[in-house]
Amino acid sequence: MTLAGGSPTISIAKKYGAVRMEDLNIRAMTTSGRGKRGLNRVMQDASLAEFRRMLVYKGLLYGCEVTFVNPAYTSQRCSACGHTETENRLSQALFVCRSCGHRSNADLNAALNIFVAGSCPETQNARGADVSHTIGVLSAMRRESVCT
């Protein structure tokens, strides 16, 4: 997803007015543990911290709002009714709400929760806490159009 000769962060910052991301603790996710060595290596090779740093920088440069939300429960909360339960996530790919019966791809459901949590600072994130922080400037008019 790059422009000819450009970086992915430039492409994202130029193409989108706002980006919502989970505020993941990569260091904690890559601590040593049996059976995780391959995953740890892949995550460290991906340079996610550098990607994040560059996206924030390019977002400020090109007017793209980059918002980070607390990742707690984003994959366990129903994007339709808000019910949060561990058993909602039946598998890596399938989400079925045990309260309202909403069925969805698990990643799509989590993405919707992240979008909502990051779109409206006056709302709460999936864990019920305030959205962590916003970097960049979003006009009040654009914010109102998303939140109402």
What report would you give on this structure?
The chain has helices at 8-15, 26-29, 37-45, 48-62, 106-119, 140-147, and strands at 18-22, 65-69, 94-96, 103-105, 133-135. It has 148 residues and is α+β, with helices and mostly antiparallel strands. The protein has a 3-stranded mixed sheet with strand order 1-2-5. Strands 3-4 form a two-stranded antiparallel ribbon. Helix 1 runs parallel beside helix 4 (48-62). The radius of gyration is 17 Å and the shape is flat.
Q: Main traits of this protein?
A:
148 residues; alpha+beta; 3-stranded mixed sheet; two-stranded antiparallel ribbon; 6 helices; 39% helix; disordered C terminus
In a few lines, what is going on in this structure?
Helices cover 39% and strands 13% of the residues. With 148 residues, the chain is of the alpha+beta class.
Instruction: Give the averaged pLDDT, no decimals.
Output: 78
Helix/strand structural class: alpha+beta
Number of strands: 5
Largest sheet: 3 strands, mixed
Low-pLDDT regions: 130-148
Measured between the Cα atoms of the first and last residue, the distance is 31 Å
Strand order of the largest sheet: 1-2-5
State the helix count: 6
Relative strand content: 5-15%
Helix content: 25-40%
Order of helices and strands: HEHHHEEEHEH
| Mass-distribution shape | flat
Radius of gyration: 17 Å
Q: What are the SSEs and their pairings?
A:
Layout: H1 8-15, E1 18-22, H2 26-29, H3 37-45, H4 48-62, E2 65-69, E3 94-96, E4 103-105, H5 106-119, E5 133-135, H6 140-147
Parallel strand pairs: 1-2
Antiparallel strand pairs: 2-5, 3-4
Helix pairs in contact: 1-4
